[in-house]
Amino acid sequence: MSLFDDVVQKGTRFLAGRTSRRSMLGRLGRTLGGAAVAFPVLPVDRVAKFAAAATAATDDQTCEYWRYCAFDGFLCSCCGGSATGCPAGTTASAVSWVGTCRNPLDDKDYLISYNDCCGKSSCGRCTCNTNLGERPAYLMGVHNDINWCMAENKSQIYHCTVAAIVGISGGTAG
Ligand code: ABN
User: Cβ contacts of residue 158 below 8 Å, gap of 6+?
Assistant: First the structure.
């Protein structure tokens, strides 16, 4: 047996005599756990997740778009209109509800007016129900769970909903 083999064998026997398998596993587990905390795993995955959330917040055809924070209905931007414009053949309800949404691009709060678009059957695309700050019908100005086409409109048929900025916290929107 070479000297190297002899040293390794003695060292291994020494360790084996003093260490149980369970304590070895425990120590190994603690080392691996510590490494996971010190060097967080999957950094690329986290970056991708934040990037996707940021993109959604600025895409007006997703419910995550920042202006839709108090939304209830179908996004007109998916129904032939836009975030602020009713599709052809429909008109904006005379009565709206409002919400206050934070724009992630400037970190400011904006007053958003939501109008139902009336005159065609339900669009059925891009359902969105976010309801931030929404209240029951005793506070009509912030109540969204109702067909506002029923209020003083040529047609009472609901199609989709638009979201327009009407003010900024601490001033007015330009
Ligand atoms: N305000 C949107 C809406 C329309 C019809 C029914 C419920 C909610």
Answer: 73, 116, 117, 118, 122, 147, 148, 149
Question: What is the 174 CA–ligand 1 centroid distance (Å)?
Answer: 29
Report the candidate in 150, 149, 172, 171 with the shortest Cα–Cα distance to residue 160: 149
H or E element, residue 48? helix 43-57
Q: Per-residue pLDDT tens for 24-75?
A: 667 767 776 666 666 665 566 667 777 777 787 889 999 999 999 999 999 9
Integer Cα distance of 34 and 61 in angstroms: 43
Query: What would the two tokens of residue 48 be?
Result: 């991708």
Instruction: Give me the catalytic one of 66, 72, 97, 148.
Output: 97
Say if ligand 1 is within 6 A of residue 158 CB.
yes
Q: What is the pTM assigned to this prediction?
A: 0.71
pLDDT at 128 over 70: yes
Instruction: Provide the token pair at 45.
Output: 């995955």
pLDDT 10s digits, 104-113: 999 999 999 9
80 — alpha (psi -120 to 50), left (phi > 0) or beta?
left
Q: Is 97 a catalytic residue?
A: yes
